[in-house]
């Protein structure tokens, strides 16, 4: 099996992954993924597509991550892994789609407007 290359995005995070047959190692920016994502919730999010298909110990994954925060990065990796697994076996697509792993979350941060504290928050109004 050749190396499969896919990309996943969430907010401003971009994950490029290289998936090949192996022992289940996940490396993110040359670090072990449990070291990169120390909380169990984020580790669970990253491994979701693999656990749905019961292939945790079948593939080695190398990830290049950039941009965004930790949650956006974890969800970007999840999307990229799901896309790679669908590339390997097209029959897994309904399972990935039903769990929402293939859908790009379109929500982005709204820009700050001039004369306001944040995007929508206003300064306190004073009548007099």
Q: What does this entry show, briefly?
A:
With 128 residues, this protein is of the alpha+beta class. The chain is 33% helix and 23% strand.
Could you describe the 3D structure shown?
The chain has 128 residues and is of the alpha+beta class. It has one domain: Ribosomal Protein S5, domain 2 (2-Layer Sandwich). The protein contains 4 helices and 5 strands, in the order E-E-E-E-H-H-E-H-H. It has a 5-stranded mixed beta sheet. Strand 1 and strand 2 form a beta hairpin. Helix 2 runs parallel beside helix 3.
Spell out the blueprint of helices and strands.
Layout: E1 4-10, E2 13-21, E3 26-28, E4 31-32, H1 33-36, H2 40-52, E5 59-66, H3 70-88, H4 93-98
Parallel strand pairs: 3-5
Antiparallel strand pairs: 1-2, 2-5, 3-4
Cα distance spanning the termini: 73 Å
Number of helices: 4
Low-confidence stretches: none
E-strand count: 5
